[in-house]
């Protein structure tokens, strides 16, 4: 049985809620990713920030990238899976929440990230198509 641990990229990187938009943009660029989980002051994940968040909720709204905190523009909802969740459960999380990346948490610890591409590499083509279709629905 394939689990989230088998699918995930690890170690996972994250941003701190107090990081500024310019720090976030550089981290996304350096890691060559479009999103990163955000860790709050208490150490727990408090959101996910995407490159789109930085542009639409930050720059386009006139916020100063050198002083605006990531937690001002990130999504506050964190949908995650556990490392022992099977591939079917992970697929369901992607489909039900229409997301393209999901953090893998072992308790409160971020241990990995699963992307849509990671899932697609492991699932049969017909299941991959179903997940992509569900993620892309309006």
Automatic annotation (TrEMBL):
One of its GO terms (molecular function) is kinase activity. This is Histidine kinase. It comes from the Bacteria. Keywords: CBS domain, Kinase, Transferase. CDD domains: CBS_pair_HRP1_like (cd04622). Signal peptide: none annotated. InterPro entries: CBS_dom (IPR000644), CBS_dom_sf (IPR046342), Diverse_CBS-Domain (IPR051257). Residues 8-65, 74-131 form the CBS domain.
